[in-house]
Amino acid sequence: MEHTSSRTTEDGASGQSGERSWTNPLLDPRDLRMPRIAGPSSLVIFGVTGDLAKKKLLPAVYDLSNRGLLPASFGLIGFGRRDWSADQFAAFAEENVRAHSRTPFNEATWRHLAEGMRFVKGDFDDADAFRRLSRTVSELDRDRGTRGNHAFYMSIPPKAFPVVAEQLAASGLSKSAPGAWKRVIIEKPFGHDLESARELDRVVGEVFEPDSVFRIDHYLGKETVQNIMALRFANTMFEPVWNANYVSHVQITMAEDIGIGGRAGYYDGIGAARDVIQNHLLQLMALTAMEEPVSFDAADLTAEKTKVLSAVRLPKDLGAHTARGQYAAGWQGSQPVIGYLQEDGIDPSSTTETYAAIRLDVDTRRWAGVPFYLRTGKRLGKRTSEIAVVFKRAPHLPFDATATRELGANAVVIRVQPDEGVTLRFGAKTPGSAMEVRDVNMDFSYGRSFTEASPEAYERLILDVLLGDPPLFPTSGEVDLSWKILDPIEEYWSGQGQPEPYRAGTWGPAQADRMLAADGHHWRMP
Amino acid sequence: MIVGMQNTTTAAIAHEIDEMHVERGEAALGRVLTLIISCRQAELEEALRTVNAASREHPCRVIAIVTDASLEGAGCAITTTGHAAQHECNTEIPSGNTGERTLDAQIRSGSDAGAGEVIVLAPVDGLMDHLDSLVIPLLVPDAPVVTWWPGQAPGDPSADPLGSRSTSRITDVQRSTDPAAAFEALRRHVRNADIDLSWTRVTTWRAMLASLLGQPPHLAVSAVTVSGQSGYLPLELLASWLALKLGAPVSVERDPGAQAITGARFEREDGQLSMERLEGDHAVIHQPGQADQTVSLPLRTPVDCLSEELGRLDPDEVYTEVITRGWDLVDHRG
């Protein structure tokens, strides 16, 4: 999804310096081999000792640097409670980069990156710490030439957002000088319902301009997800059948094989639907169902996603068309595992769901009568994410009934992870003298056709923030619409008591199967 | 694994590859391009090492044609050296060919072939004049064909029997016996899909310089100086590109003792911006009113360059403009 129009706004040219008409003479939209390198800037990470920073953010920064996509003037500031020097922070970062980076470790690259690393010790409510942060930022501007361009990555629990935002405002860090930028990156959850999402927006909005707020949904940084748009809008063979005339229904699945692990404090009371459906699955649905955008610029893409999200209709009978479950003890693969209610830190009477499935309809001419089934869960059969567009059966089959007994519905399956790619499912004659038709798969795999390792989603997204390129980030409007879809379902569920237990390592509660059977469909086994 | 096929035919080779795919449960259709290498025996192993590493990013079918083979004598015309020679799984397929011996071949796969398969062909005699029909049965169906000359570049790649059928033609005149003459020929015959790796070698420099000029204040550049090794085509191309894009005079400082490109300096009314490569792996950026910055800038390896070319199959119009219009804007003598 490279698009040429963003090239002219790269780097400093996007600043508020009134030089918008200036274009870099060395950049040429036809010059596709030139990598997009971020301009001078720094990344400030709050919550730098957390899991996300250790496993994803620090390695992604290193990988970007190793691919030559970060500028010479780049700084990385960690903010946390530990009593660390810059060197200790760099050692911590190095350890995690070595363990998790995608590209090989290169001493020279690391040395340059480490020179720009700083650590600021402090608590979020400590005004002094933010004054020290402000000094460190100025010091980077002076010594590393970061020129007042700074991105603040909130890798922290949402309840800490307001205080950090206030501190950034009070210490003057949120203000940018002319020609420079300050951006803030926030991670899901964007609130836990519409009201809290709006409150969060208000808090962040008081401090940062709306176009300086980047909400990360890391699914949108994945190559396969961007490929949905290539598949749909660059080809001729899919679009003609991508509608209610041919499509029977759509199944969007994100299954995890792990339990809640150490996330009890966050997960309990939130549950699968708020954790995954509200953001990842509704975004995947929007990309699958939206009309063709006028261009791939942020505004045009958002317009189409917003249209389709606002056309979503909930089922009248939420009891029959939604399902939720909670994993019980069982065997996950070949290991015995405990149930959700036995997990550390979980209230034994918790009604939080670890599995959620919902039916949504899209009230547009394209999708009238086509249900979209969204499901997600923990401790399911295996880790997989996919979008399956399942087609109607042929209106007439000129074969004996016995010939097509084994024939299922045709499907286009976009495999998001793992083994990224696309599968086409259709019927073929089995060899032999009798006419017998059976389902076969035709496969496209990213790994085999292109590259063994595509960039991590976080690499792409961090680079996009530094370049100020917003198409892959959901807007607050999309977040609000998603909550409007989910809130009535959550409200209904809250009056339903205990979710139905399902044995760990299976594909969820029986309720979910009944929900599809009622419509005459069944879940694909991914 | 290396399968040797002495005195063979393309039909036998195609059959052997299909068998191999069935045995290993792979789909040959997964390959998105065919890469043809035209080289001399002495260049073969190095070219294959490069392509094997690059194929990790771009799985492809490789057809390497050895242009100076001799089939006289009993052994296979393709001598394997280095790692490939020590491999144990070498097998020979007996020849079923009853005609005159015109072709020896090898099929390499698994650890000897990166993420694809490699077919090495050693044609002789009359077959040398029909290299296009030699490779046709072996191409990946309906996929782009890229031809790479790792050594001596043909004067007119698009008129070459292999080049004329290719989607993209990669030369490397820096490694020709007379680079200057070879480049003059390329320039005279340049077509849209031609590319020389000398251009690929300056991508990093170009990106860094573009990023440098992208920073405010956005003032006009009045003069440019680039410096580097004498007789180094990438340096001349960088100068031509800057002259074309900036519309400012560009001078080139050549030093026989230098390695590759060593620096670029822009004169503006606020002073001089520069990027100088000091040692092999890093460069210092100087901007008026800013502290100097060091940046990692390792020399590009052949693998980097080939990977970039395989990732980008569309014609590079900027390159064509640089070697046609940009070239004459700079004094390349000296």
UniProtKB/TrEMBL annotation, chain A:
SUPFAM superfamilies xref list: Glyceraldehyde-3-phosphate dehydrogenase-like, C-terminal domain, NAD(P)-binding Rossmann-fold domains
Instruction: Cite a single GO MF annotation.
Output: glucose-6-phosphate dehydrogenase activity
Q: Where is the Glucose-6-phosphate dehydrogenase C-terminal domain?
A: 229-524
* Enzyme Commission no: 1.1.1.49
Record's GO cellular component terms: cytosol
Gene name linked to the record: zwf
This protein's name: Glucose-6-phosphate 1-dehydrogenase
User: Which top class of enzyme applies to this chain?
Assistant: oxidoreductase
- Stated role: Catalyzes the oxidation of glucose 6-phosphate to 6-phosphogluconolactone.
Kindly list the positions annotated as binding substrate: H218, K222, E256, D275, K378
UniProtKB/TrEMBL annotation, chain B:
Domain Glucose-6-phosphate dehydrogenase assembly protein OpcA C-terminal, residue spans = 193-322
For bias type Polar residues, the affected ranges are 164-174
Which Pfam families does this entry report, sorted A to Z? OpcA_G6PD_assem, OpcA_G6PD_C
Q: What name appears for this protein in its UniProt entry?
A: OpcA protein
Q: Which superkingdom, per the lineage?
A: Bacteria
The UniProt annotation puts the region (Disordered) at: 152-174
Glucose-6-phosphate dehydrogenase assembly protein OpcA N-terminal domain location is 52-187
